[in-house]
Design brief:
Blueprint (H helix, E strand, L loop, with lengths): L3 E3 L21 E11 L2 E12 L2 E6 L6 H9 L6 E5 L5 E4 L4 H4 L5 H6 L3 H4 L6 H14 L15 H13 L5 E5 L7 H16 L3 E5 L3 H6 L2 E6 L2 E6 L1 H36 L2
Parallel strand pairs: 1-10, 4-8, 4-9, 6-7, 7-8
Antiparallel strand pairs: 2-3, 2-5, 9-10
Helix pairs in contact: 5-6, 6-7
């Protein structure tokens, strides 16, 4: 299946003046013909897409389309049976969807965010002043300063989600991957998360976010539409959203036509007195 080319240049953004720059991610990441198996099925079936540095790319598509698998492949957690990924930086941060098990851990918001620095300092390493500053800045980016001393188990779904996003942001990785970061959040929380992702992209990171949220899609710089493990459209968010709507309408058309035919048959049967 051919891929629709719908590219546009991402709008310029002004970096946050207090933030340290991300490591150089080059010009971006390119997946080419990516095949990943999951449970005996092809979760990705020759996916090809471009994920530029300095931009937020939204991954969209229905459940089972391959969004999460693509994120895991980019993170190095799902080995590819075929295809290549070019431009991958050594440092990558993955923010997965929240689980209830994590909520029960006896952690404060600050401690949860500090876990994002384990890769640099180890579990028992001291944060130091610079590390503590990074933790506080990450919390501030998502508007979660007031959650620093609160237990995760006492937070709402949206609050926990913001803390998890802060855990990803604190790593300042050149590749930031997020799986439905606003799934449990209200509109205000999703806006804060989107703002934080835009700031990370403005600093040069490759930011890739799987989302079902139309508002987050509209705020992205680029979008990639997946369907049954294939990339079927990529480019400007509004064009990809239109392509997604057209595919959904085409998929529903046979069922609608069948229902219409059934209604006509019922009407004829009723009028004939049968």
């Amino acid at each position: 299946m051919s891929t629709a080319s719908l590219d546009r240049r991402p709008p310029a953004r002004t970096p946050r003046p207090t933030a340290e720059p991300h490591a150089d991610a080059g010009t971006g990441v390119r997946a080419e013909g990516l095949v990943v198996h999951r449970g005996g099925e092809r979760a990705l079936d020759g996916a090809t897409c471009w994920l530029p540095a300095g931009a937020v790319t939204a991954l969209v598509g229905g459940n089972g389309s391959g969004k999460s698998t693509l994120l895991e492949a980019l993170a190095g957690l799902a080995p590819a049976a075929a295809g290549t990924i070019a431009g991958l930086p050594a440092a990558r941060a993955l923010v997965v969807q929240r689980t209830d098990a994590g909520d029960r851990l006896p952690l404060t918001g600050r401690q949860a965010v500090a876990m994002g620095l384990w890769g640099e300092r180890g579990m028992l390493g001291r944060l130091g002043a610079a590390g503590r500053r990074r933790v506080e800045e990450a919390l501030a980016q998502v508007g979660a300063e007031h959650l620093a001393d609160r237990q995760l188990s006492a937070m709402s779904g949206g609050q926990r989600q913001r803390v998890l996003v802060a855990q990803g942001l604190v790593q300042r990785a050149p590749l930031l991957l997020l799986d439905e970061p606003g799934s449990a959040a209200d509109d205000a929380s999703r806006d804060r998360i989107d703002d934080a992702l835009a700031a990370a992209a403005a600093e040069g990171a490759v930011v890739v976010v799987a989302t079902h949220d139309r508002r987050s899609l509209a705020r992205a710089d680029r979008a990639v539409l997946l369907d049954h493990g294939l990339v079927v459209a990529e480019g400007a968010p509004e064009a990809v959203a239109a392509a997604q709507a057209a595919r959904a309408a085409a998929a529903l058309a046979p069922a609608a036509a069948e229902a219409q035919r059934g209604g006509a048959v019922e009407a004829r049967t009723t009028s004939s007195g049968a």
